[in-house]
Amino acid sequence: MRPGTKLFIGAGLMLALALALFVSPFASSSPDGLNKVAIEKGFDDTAEDHALDGSPLAGYAVRGITDERISKALSGLIGVLMTFGVGLLIFGVVARRREKEGQPLGEST
Q1: At a CB cut-off of 8 Å and minimum separation 6, what does 22 contact?
Q2: Residue pair 73/67 in contact by the 8 Å Cβ criterion
């Protein structure tokens, strides 16, 4: 990987982490998108709990953390790190596959 690419990825990760930790705690708790429309149109009472509603990160919060802002920040941090990790894993698999096929990483098919 070229140094410029590493710098770009690192800067993007740092920006995402900063937003997750320092901006997400101030996100509005007002209903958004479909929730707001459901309330306005009167069908919000038909909503059902999601299958993962009891999971540790449900509702943009970390279960067990009582401070709402800290809970949102940790939830954002965990989300960014998990997304980045999955992305690294996928791109690593693609890079190895291309190397096995003898195709240089910089060329597309």
Answers
A1: 73
A2: no
pLDDT digits (tens, 9 = 90+) for 37-55: 989 999 988 888 888 888 8
Model confidence, pTM: 0.72
Q: What is the DSSP string of the chain?
A: --HHHHHHHHHHHHHHHHHHHHTGGG---S--HHHHHHHHHT-GGG----TTTTSTTGGGS-TT--SHHHHHHHHHHHHHHHHHHHHHHHHHHHHHHHHHTT--TT---
Residue 85's pLDDT is 95
